[in-house]
Amino acid sequence: MEAFGHLLDIMDELRVKCPWDRKQTNESLRTNTIEETYELCEALMRKDDTNIKKELGDLLLHIVFYAKIGEEKDAFDIKDVCDSLCQKLIYRHPHVFGDASADTAQKVEQSWEQLKLKEKGGNKTVLEGVPASLPSVVKAHRIQDKARNVGFDWEQREQVWDKVQEELGELKTEIDRMDPDKMEAEFGDLFFSLINAARLYKINPDNALERTNQKFIRRFNYLEQHTIQQGRSLKEMTLEEMDQLWNEAKAKGL
Asked: N or C: where does the chain have the smaller number of CB atoms within 10 Å of the terminal CB?
């Protein structure tokens, strides 16, 4: 593809002629890569196609950058990256490129996990493939999803609500006792059970929480802006006054 080749040529030139690009390493780029990934996620959440295109380009730049560094170390190049990905995709989709059968997305996911366990040098345990650095909500969802793919799941999804109620009861007990360590542990168990419920009902918990984050920001900003217009500060307002503005924001669909 001509556009991709052009990108590779630009990367080659930058590594030679640009002082900043020349000094970058895997370690120096890592935090920027994380930032770019989150910026892409933000654009995806907003369904902002213009910025999705932009952020995909920024992330692609990082992929090409890492591949260039690998090439300079004689470890691998971008062709090796693409070839490895193609081999993995073909191997893990035997229902497309082979004789296997999988007529639902769930069967595909189950087959994917089983094939990963069989791969030479692959994950030796079901949960080994969950990155330790994932954010906690995403990690919990991935852990539960991987366990489901090997059959460790509720027989009926409605059963999860009994678990949620059980964990809520245990949390309330520890709150009554005011044991900070056990309160934190039970909060974690409650969160985990709620994430499990979200998974069972096809809700992405990270997306759901981020939607609520953004909703809170919009409504709180409305409250703050109207307070400033009145020549007051939030600290001067009563909770009842703040609630009134909050409800106004809610009524406006913010």
From this structure: N
Q: What's phi and psi for 183, nearest 5 deg? A: -60, -45
Task: Report the distance separating Cα 45 and Cα 43, nearest Å.
Answer: 5
Whole-number Å distance between alpha carbons of 26 and 184: 36
Q: Say if residues 162 and 168 touch (Cβ distance below 8 Å).
A: no
Query: Tens digit of pLDDT for each residue in 179-218?
Result: 999 999 999 999 999 999 999 999 999 989 999 999 999 9
Q: Report DSSP letters for 131-160, one per residue.
A: -TTS-HHHHHHHHHHHHHHTT-S-SSGGGH
Q: What does the pLDDT average to over 26-33?
A: 93
Reduce the DSSP state of residue 127 to 3 states and report it.
Answer: coil
Nearest to 63 by CA among 52, 50, 76: 76
SS3 category, 23? helix
Listed as own residue / partner, the contacts of 42-51 with beta carbons closer than 8 Å and 24 or more positions apart are 45/207, 45/210, 45/211, 45/214
Write out the two tokens for 112: 């994917």
- d(CA 20, CA 132) in angstroms, rounded, equals 31
Tell me what percent of the residues of the chain surpass a pLDDT of 90.
Answer: 66
